[in-house]
Design goal:
This protein has 13 helices and four strands. The chain is mainly α and 306 residues long. It is rod-shaped, with a radius of gyration of 44 Å. Bound molecules: heme C (HEC). The site of heme C has 24 residues, from helix 8, helix 9, helix 10 and helix 11. Heme C binds next to helix 8, helix 9, helix 10 and helix 11.
């Protein structure tokens, strides 16, 4: 009887949990807790009702067992007045409370400095909560750790992090304005370079000339750079300018991705060797991939120190 009750309660809960689990997992991890709590309570009520029914049936059977039970029944009748309501008799059975006059019967035989212990039952409400927590623990562990229904905190964390990483990636892909001197790369598509040339023609020609030969500003076609010749250096010179030398900071007028385009366009001017180019200024720029090869500079230094 009890078994049937428990099995059916578990079945009811199982159906509830599966339907809750079929919806989106990440969002509903915490919603399901409420459902589980409800299920646990339902289970508890069902079990309690089952036990009560069993006890009542048991009492009825005993009633019919006739003469040989008379003694027992009399003893029972003494302690159980007929008028006693059901809930009180249930409570009394659960606590097995003994009147103070009969406490001697349940006194345990130890005595610690005059402190003695009665062999009382645990309070039924406490015991009930204790069992509920055990059932709860088993269900919880099964639901979140053994089956695929619920996610453990670790799984939920991983899933949320993955979702967030995706969102960040999606956001990044829409944010071309996030280009700066630390992550800028050379653009080589014709469209970008054409746009770069357009920006150059509008803003830069007055000082650098249309072919980059240089006028007020230095020659942009040779290998010599005052502020460095990598894409990062050029981007940075355009963005922040060299105000004290007459090269203004363009960040207020040109968007980052357009500065990237014009910087990439400036790099295409390398080696075009226009007529009447301004004399080289600054240091010869050697791209990093090649800078390890020649040892001549070091040799020179050696001879100089000797
Ligand atoms: C008002 C004149 C002027 C304008 C306009 C101007 N520049 Fe310059 N630019 C200069 C000067 C002067 C320098 C030299 C700065 C220095 O000595 O450090 C320079 C330096 C540079 C450098 C660095 C060269 C090196 O050797 O390090 C780059 C790259 C450059 N300009 C690109 C541009 C671009 C791109 C534009 C248009 C968006 C532009 N400039 C507009 C005057 C100008």
């Amino acid at each position: 009887m009890t078994k049937i009750l428990i099995t059916s309660a578990i079945l009811i809960m199982h159906v509830g949990i599966s339907s809750a689990a079929s919806s989106n997992k990440v969002e509903n991890v915490y919603d399901n807790l409420g459902l589980l709590l409800l299920g646990g309570l339902a289970l508890f009520v069902i079990i309690a009702a089952g036990i009560t029914i069993i006890k009542i049936l048991d009492a009825m059977v005993r009633d019919r067992q006739g003469e040989n039970q008379v003694d027992l029944d009399v003893a029972k009748a003494e302690s159980t007045p007929a008028s006693e309501p059901l809930w009180r008799s249930l409570y009394r059975q659960a606590t097995k409370a003994v009147p103070v006059s009969r406490e001697k019967e349940i006194l345990l035989d130890h005595d610690y400095d005059g402190i003695k212990e009665l062999d009382n039952n645990l309070p039924p409400w406490w015991l009930a909560m204790f069992y509920v927590t055990i059932v709860w623990g088993v269900l919880y562990f099964g639901y979140y750790h053994l089956t695929d229904y619920g996610m453990s905190s670790h799984e939920a964390y991983t899933a949320e992090m993955a979702a967030a990483a995706q969102e960040v990636a999606a956001f990044r892909s829409t944010q071309t304005v996030m280009v700066d001197e630390t992550n800028v790369t050379t653009m080589d598509s014709e469209a970008d370079l054409a746009k770069g040339k357009q920006i150059y023609d509008i803003n830069c020609v007055v000082c650098h000339l249309d072919n980059g030969a240089g006028l007020v500003g230095p020659n942009l076609t040779d290998e010599y750079w005052i502020n460095g010749g990598s894409i990062q250096d050029i981007f940075s010179t355009i963005k922040y300018g060299v105000p004290e030398k007459g090269m203004i900071a363009w960040s207020a007028q040109i968007k980052p991705d357009d500065m990237q385009r014009v910087a990439s366009y400036v790099m295409t001017l390398q080696g075009t060797n226009p007529p009447n180019g301004k004399a080289p200024e600054g240091e010869k720029y050697v791209p990093e991939s090649e800078s390890t090869a020649p040892t001549t500079d070091e040799d020179k230094e050696d001879t100089e120190t000797i």
